[in-house]
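Backbone-to-sequence.
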């Protein structure tokens, strides 16, 4: 079992979905976790308190918010060991219908927020090394026709991951990405289901696009993604950097086989 005792971690977008699962998994393995989210949820207070997870409001579009989040986490020990850039939003629209405001919101949260996180985390990690995990998407491995701007943001996030992994290998800072989908019980997925005319049909459509999810007849659980993050920040992955790990049930492999 990975031992993260004494390590300091920040998780953005940690109030629900993948971010919440990641914060819980890291804390369960001994890390001191600070969660930042634009909307903190009362339902998390009890469990977070049990595990010593602290939380504060943070809008990752604002550099001052992200810098303050990082500095608060590092204040007690003058170090930061783990950063998980998880905050993200979706955008399902053809590019001809995307407004400038929608473009800016998607790119600012999904990409610029991770840039701010890395920018302010790296100086705290430099003395001893550290691990950054960016939560991308299978849309960061292969572009998708129905949400091109979202795909652009995640493709760029994978590019940021690889570039910084190369730049900061000399500092013993590892930078990796996780590329999930389709993941159930997240704010993004729940919003899509609520907006669908037929939520059950939409759920089956999402599951059907991923061959392994279809075979298992279920979506990926947020904790399954969190366990991948746990591996990447642990000593077991001490020589893993610049990778984009797909946790997508084979969705990014290509055209799935037809049902039997």
């Amino acid at each position: 079992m990975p031992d993260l005792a004494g390590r300091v971690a920040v998780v953005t977008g940690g109030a629900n979905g993948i971010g919440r699962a990641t914060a819980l998994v890291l804390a369960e393995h001994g890390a001191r976790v600070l969660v930042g989210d634009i909307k903190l949820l009362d339902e998390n207070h009890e469990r977070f308190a049990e595990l010593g997870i602290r939380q504060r409001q943070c809008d990752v579009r604002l550099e001052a918010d992200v810098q303050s989040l990082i500095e608060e986490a590092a204040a007690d020990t003058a170090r930061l060991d783990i950063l998980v850039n998880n905050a993200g939003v979706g955008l399902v629209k053809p590019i001809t219908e995307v407004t400038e405001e929608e473009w800016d919101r998607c790119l600012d949260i999904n990409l610029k927020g991770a840039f701010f996180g890395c920018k302010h985390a790296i100086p705290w990690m430099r003395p001893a090394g550290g691990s950054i995990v960016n939560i991308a998407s299978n849309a960061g491995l292969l572009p998708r026709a129905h949400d091109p701007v979202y795909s652009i943001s995640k493709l760029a996030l994978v590019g940021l991951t690889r570039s910084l992994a190369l730049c900061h290998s000399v500092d013993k800072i590892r930078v990796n990405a996780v590329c999930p989908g389709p993941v159930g019980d997240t704010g993004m997925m729940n919003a899509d289901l609520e907006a669908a005319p037929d939520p059950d049909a939409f759920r089956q459509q999402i599951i059907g696009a991923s061959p392994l999810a279809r075979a298992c007849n279920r979506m990926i659980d947020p904790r399954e993604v969190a366990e991948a993050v746990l591996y990447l920040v642990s000593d077991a992955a001490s020589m893993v950097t610049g990778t984009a790990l797909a946790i997508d049930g084979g969705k990014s492999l290509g055209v799935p086989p037809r049902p039997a």
